[in-house]
Design brief:
It contains ten helices and eight strands. It is α+β, with helices and mostly antiparallel strands. The protein has two domains: 227 residues, no CATH class; 94 residues, no CATH class. It is elongated, with a radius of gyration of 28 Å.
């Protein structure tokens, strides 16, 4: 590694961390002014505000805007180098434009790996503390999944609940269906009401009737009350806002597999979160290449033109990523494809721009 490499890396990472630290302070000040009434009303301790809320908020904020600040940093310091004729001097000394990009690759890879570690292992743990603080002192992020619930609780065993109250742990209009390996119905139970019995960890089913199918014969049984064990817990009727964001890589992978077996309709939404944790760090490299290609040429007017064109490209990239994720969640597009399509398209664009930049 040469002196010029260290010079560019220092400029790149220095500008990145300085700009994101500066904006973090501004965001914290605005956030504090907005939530100060909640903190005072619920008597949040100063230590909890600093160490449980804002200290855990910073990694989330840094990772969320890392690719955007990567691009802004590249545009800013590369444009200054170009306006000071530093890039012309570097290329005139015999260094090729491709070799000139090496320190940019190293810096972008460092930020990308940092973002990957943050997204998959550090931020999920900090989010747990963050959400607990918000639930206690700001808001209650719990909401009930209480209408028309369909769920697979075991292979071939499906339940339906018309409504469920998480406070009383009671559901209305409950049915359970069991199918054999050929997909034929072999057992069904319907009831008007069912409730959780914490003393026995069982479900109490009221006003029920069962239907058992054995070949060509059917047996019907009717009863007033029955206690039974199901592979189901009342907590599974409760959704915590952004709950999957508190799961690290291994927890999220196990959770998705569990939800897939249960037949959850939100599996694609969970997979989008899983794949975006890899796709977003990769975007730092793409935006670095676009930034270098735009700002490495000296133009009149300084960095204004570079920033204008670059920010337009960046926001179109971010918009494309958001839209593609929506299509993955509700539009039937495979989650991995939907998450990676923006990276593929803008990656090809960045390669083209880098190829024509020296000319």
């Amino acid at each position: 590694m040469k002196i010029i490499d260290l010079y560019i890396i220092r400029k790149f990472l220095g500008t990145f961390f300085y700009s994101i630290a500066l904006l973090s302070v501004v965001i914290i000040i605005f956030d504090l002014s907005e939530k100060i009434d909640d903190f005072l009303e619920k008597e949040a301790p100063f230590r909890a505000i600093v160490f449980e809320y804002y200290l855990n908020f910073i990694p989330f904020f840094v990772n969320m805007f890392s690719y955007l600040f990567t691009f802004i940093s590249v545009i800013f310091f590369t444009s200054k180098m170009a306006s000071n004729t530093e890039i012309v001097a570097i290329l005139s000394s015999g260094i090729s434009f491709r070799r000139f990009l090496h320190p940019y690759f190293i810096s972008a890879a460092f930020i990308g790996i940092l973002s990957l570690i943050l997204a998959n292992f550090i931020i999920p743990n900090t989010n747990k503390t963050l959400w607990e603080f918000e639930k206690t002192y700001i808001k209650n992020p719990i909401r009930n999944e209480d209408m028309n619930i369909h769920m697979q609780i075991n292979p071939g065993v499906f339940i339906y609940v018309e409504s469920f109250n998480t406070s009383t742990k009671t559901g209305q209009k409950f049915s359970l269906e069991q199918f054999d390996i050929e997909g034929k119905l072999i057992f069904k139970i319907n009831s008007d009401r069912f409730s959780w019995v914490p003393e026995t960890s069982q479900w109490r089913i009221n006003n029920y009737y069962t239907r058992t199918i054995e070949g060509d014969r059917e047996r019907l049984v009717k009863g007033l009350e029955m206690d039974t064990t199901l592979n189901l817990h009342p907590s599974e009727f409760t959704i915590i806002s952004d709950d999957i964001k508190t799961m690290d890589y291994f927890e999220l992978k196990a959770f998705i597999e569990k939800e897939r077996l249960r037949g959850s309709p939100k599996v694609n939404e969970y997979r989008v979160e899983q794949y975006r944790r890899y796709a977003f760090p990769f975007s730092t490299l793409i935006l670095t290449l676009i930034g270098v290609s735009l700002s490495s040429r000296k133009v009149r007017g300084g960095i204004g033109m570079h920033l204008g064109v670059g920010i337009a490209l960046t926001f179109s990239y971010i918009l494309f990523m958001q839209v593609s994720q929506v299509f993955a969640a509700v539009g039937g597009v495979p989650p991995m494809l939907a998450v990676w399509i923006p990276n593929i398209i803008y990656g090809l664009l960045s390669i083209y721009m880098i190829r024509v930049a020296p000319k």
